[in-house]
Amino acid sequence: MKDSVLVIGGGVAGIQAALDLAEKGLNVYLVEKSPSIGGRMAQLDKTFPTNDCSICILAPKMIDCFNHPNITVYSYSQVKKMSRLGDSFHVQIITRPRYIDEEKCTGCGDCITACPYQAPDIFNVGLGSGRSIHLYFPQAVPRVALIDWDTCIKCGNCVKVCNAEAINLDQKSREFSLDARAIIVATGLDVFDPSSIPEYGYGEYPNVITSIQYERLINASGPTGGHLVRISDGRPVKRLAFIQCVGSRDVKNNPYCSAICCMFSTKSATLAREHDPDIENFIFYTELQASGKRFQEYIVRGKAEYGIQYIQAKPGEIRETADNNPVLWYYDRQSSEVKKITVDMVVLAVALQPSHGAGELAGILGIDIDENGFFSCRDMLFAPSDTKVPGIFVCGYSKRPVDITDAVISASGASARAAEYICILRESLTSSLTGQQDTRSGFRS
Length: 445
Prior knowledge:
Layout: E1 4-8, H1 12-23, E2 27-31, E3 46-47, E4 52-53, H2 54-67, E5 71-74, E6 77-85, E7 88-95, H3 110-114, E8 118-120, E9 129-131, E10 133-134, E11 146-147, H4 157-161, E12 174-180, E13 182-185, E14 189-191, E15 208-210, H5 211-218, E16 239-246, H6 261-275, E17 280-285, H7 295-306, E18 309-312, E19 317-320, E20 326-332, E21 337-342, E22 345-350, E23 352-354, H8 358-365, E24 392-394, H9 404-434
Parallel strand pairs: 1-2, 1-13, 2-5, 13-24, 15-22, 16-17, 16-22, 17-18
Antiparallel strand pairs: 3-4, 6-7, 7-12, 8-9, 10-11, 14-23, 19-20, 20-21
Helix pairs in contact: 1-2, 1-9, 5-6, 6-7
């Protein structure tokens, strides 16, 4: 049997791990719970500190991963059960129904045009609306539409216009199993819901949005075509405020630092100024975390070239004027005064958390999670990818808060460890067959 590795999670970390392993000649199964691989990076407009186009970096990797002869991608799928069989893992996978045949669908979009029902746009985080039948996002891989059965009105228009006869409204969930020598967990992150912090008015004030909503708002493929306008009335934004540490560094919610929020807000303010040179940006921060390569330089440039105003304060409350302008009240440390500022829009830099379902997956795989819900490593210094179960490795944001660069680095590290683990299994098998003793058992401890 050709040695195989199961990669759980199809974000940038999972894709990188899969590509690294495939290039080593290993067979890779990549399981992703969303309809497309790409993860959170696919929702971003630009990446810091270079302001490079996010999807321009990611899309080629997605295509290479999907088309690689050594990689099999299972999208819209999740791990249901796992058991150990000797030196291999026997894993049961469940694939949810798209109600569209992946083999027949050509991605033409005729069914989407014919769908009459407007449904919430999940990929755009509730900004704007889509159709019950939709492509997850324009660059989705695989390029196959899906039907949201909960909002579908069963009119049959999609069936009538599909020349490929790909619509299958009777499609059911499919379960299958596979065997792997090693497993890499790269389940990524989810976004904290700031509705539990009522003083900021999220969900009540239309012009208070989250960081991921801002990414979709300013993205050219987003609901406004990249135009930075207010949610309430479509008016161009001229004064923009960012609040750091919303739900993070907070003992009531998440006590850890999410690692990327300071740089995200600096990037977002920079992009806003590039869209409109007249925009005023205010970043309310606790402490600026700029530990990565050229991060401090990025902040200095933001102040000098883009006029970003950094205010060391955490607003205690947001109120709203009659014309939906958010008003931020805060304590100014320099003047020791309570002040207020009125803006057109507020962006909450919310905490980034381990992916929903991480605890359940940990139970299935028999590995540990820490007090904050991240997957635990055996030793962060000497075995930063290894879990307590030999052959199961973790990487990316599922392990600890990291930016994209560090997520990719940790993915390559985990893939190297998985390949090393498989090599040692091979040598152990060869040694047992030839009667020789493997003296390097420490690698498997």
